[in-house]
């Protein structure tokens, strides 16, 4: 181990233990009280204590930006400016070429905004290309704001569901050359964790006159991101969007990183205080510098600063190091699941064919995904997510493929009915704080569930489409409510 790796490992081991909520305990259906195992990080990550501490200290100096006439405003303005630049450096975006700015409602707001920008600056190109694996946030905005959306395949030559097929993408771009405004791809699938070759896709998009937009929601906290490739600039990414709630700072805003020359072509999408140079009775003048012109209104200053602090911590550890650590856990999960013939993993599971990050989705044979998720929580204290993960077309395609393989001689109507009964999966997802012990506990729990299917099935009934235990419920003293907490604080 070279000295740099040793330093990275030391900091990594320190940071991974310092997340708020890692020591939360619940009493399970077995009567035992156990520390929860949080494997729902793809939905939202836990809060990094270092970023939380930065935020707590900043609050003692909190003030609004856009003024330098008192101490708190100076501090807020300086640190808010630093947050923008720190994010640009983190994604290797050249400061002269790109700007970063913050948006509300996570990644969704940023993608909607960019879809409108691309539409308005290139009105003669009214087609967007997305993949089948996209989260609704990187699919529906393009359907709404573009005339047509074309989905590029994610199957390899053997028919397995893997990453975006670059050959198919190029063929699609070639056939529709002159019509396509932009290509929008996720960096990492929020369902399977499969990683897409976004820089290579950008090269193809640019070759045929299209722009490249990347949904980085599941990417930023897990692997290095390079928006600029100095030795091969045709692979540069034109715009990227991500969210702080998936980057260890719940409550922080979404972030857009985009080329300044693109944004400069039209008036900013959002108007209001802070983005204008001057306002008259009959007109207003927009600021000609970034990021101010793109951030109308009072921003989420604390959230932005905390997000940049978390990103700084990740960078200190090293994103290459973090990616390698996570790949070990992913391989451990997949190997453990493959050893159990009752577990079906979705998407290409050979890491030599498709790299994975953050997530693995699966089902247990003859058990509903909702039941499996409930059992993992109630009996083992393992928090996972189930259903379609806001990626309905992708999940449907994978489940339908399995049903067709298993029911070759059954009429299509019956297959469709079977799909509606089983249109979902269980997803385990990981983060910096996930340990090998957490993975061992997950695999052990899944093995137990597959061995005792009937026992667990008899313990639950369905209430409003949710699996509810017939006799067990969370203890009142372990429930959190805002009102009871306020009463305790104010008493």
Overall mean confidence score, pLDDT: 92
Q: Please state roughly what percent of the residues sit in beta strands, choosing from under 5%, 5-15%, 15-25%, 25-35%, 35-45% or over 45%.
A: 15-25%
N- to C-terminal distance: 55 Å
What top-tier CATH class of the largest domain fits best? Answer: Alpha Beta
- Work out the count of structural domains: 2
Any low-confidence stretches, pLDDT <50, length ≥5? none
- Which architecture of the largest domain would the CATH scheme give at its second level? 3-Layer(aba) Sandwich
What's the CATH topology name of the largest domain? Aspartate Aminotransferase, domain 2
The portion of residues assigned to helices is 25-40%
What does this structure look like?
By secondary structure, the chain is an alpha/beta fold. It folds into 2 domains: 206 residues, Aspartate Aminotransferase, domain 1; 265 residues, 3-Layer(aba) Sandwich (Aspartate Aminotransferase, domain 2), CATH 3.40.640. The protein has a 7-stranded mixed sheet with strand order 6-12-11-10-9-7-8, with helices on both faces. Strand 13 and strand 14 form a beta hairpin. The longest helix has 20 residues. It is globular and about 70 Å long. The protein starts with a helix and ends with a helix. The mean pLDDT is 92.
């Amino acid at each position: 181990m070279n000295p740099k790796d040793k330093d990275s490992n030391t900091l990594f081991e320190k940071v991974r233990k310092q997340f708020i909520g890692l020591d939360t305990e619940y009493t399970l259906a077995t009567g035992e009280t156990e520390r929860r195992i949080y494997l729902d990080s793809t939905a939202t990550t836990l809060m990094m204590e270092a970023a939380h501490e930065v935020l707590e200290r900043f609050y003692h100096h909190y003030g609004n930006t856009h003024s330098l006439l008192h101490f708190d405003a100076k501090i807020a303005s300086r640190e808010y400016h630093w947050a923008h630049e720190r994010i640009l450096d983190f994604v290797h975006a050249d400061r002269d070429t790109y700007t970063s700015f913050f948006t509300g409602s996570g990644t969704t707001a940023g993608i909607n905004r960019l879809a409108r920008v691309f539409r308005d600056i290139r009105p003669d190109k009214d087609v967007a290309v997305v993949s089948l694996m996209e989260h609704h946030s990187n699919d529906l905005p393009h359907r709404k704001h573009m005339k047509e959306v074309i989905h590029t395949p994610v199957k390899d030559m053997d028919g397995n569901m893997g990453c975006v097929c670059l050959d198919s993408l190029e063929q699609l771009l070639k056939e529709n050359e002159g019509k396509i405004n932009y290509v929008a791809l996720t960096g990492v699938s929020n369902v399977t964790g499969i990683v897409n070759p976004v820089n290579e896709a950008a090269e193809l998009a640019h070759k045929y006159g299209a722009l490249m937009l990347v949904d980085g929601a599941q990417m930023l906290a897990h692997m290095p991101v390079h928006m600029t490739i100095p030795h091969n600039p045709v692979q540069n990414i034109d715009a990227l969007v991500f969210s702080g709630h998936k980057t260890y700072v719940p409550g922080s805003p979404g972030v857009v990183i985009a080329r300044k020359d693109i944004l400069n072509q039209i008036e900013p999408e959002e108007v209001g205080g802070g983005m204008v140079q001057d306002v008259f009775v009959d007109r207003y003048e927009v600021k000609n510098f970034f990021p101010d012109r793109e951030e109308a209104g009072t921003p989420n200053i604390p959230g932005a600063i905390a997000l940049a602090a978390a990103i700084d911590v990740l960078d200190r550890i090293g994103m290459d190091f973090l990616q390698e650590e996570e790949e070990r856990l992913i391989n451990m999960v997949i190997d453990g699941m493959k050893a159990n013939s009752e577990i079906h993993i979705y998407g290409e599971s050979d890491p030599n064919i498709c790299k994975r990050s953050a997530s693995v989705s699966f089902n247990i044979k003859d058990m509903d995904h909702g039941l499996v998720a409930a059992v993992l929580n109630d009996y083992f204290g393992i928090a996972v997510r189930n259903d379609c993960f806001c990626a309905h077309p992708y999940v449907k395609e994978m489940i339908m493929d399995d049903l067709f393989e298993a029911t070759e001689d059954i009429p299509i109507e019956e297959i469709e009915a079977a799909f509606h009964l089983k249109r979902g999966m269980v997803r385990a997802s990981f983060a910096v704080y996930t340990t090998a012990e957490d993975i061992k506990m997950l695999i052990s729990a899944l093995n137990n569930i597959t061995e005792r299917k009937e026992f667990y099935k008899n313990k639950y009934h369905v209430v409003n489409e949710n699996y509810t235990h017939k006799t067990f419920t969370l203890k009142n003293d372990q429930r959190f409510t805002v009102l009871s907490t306020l009463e305790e604080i104010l008493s």
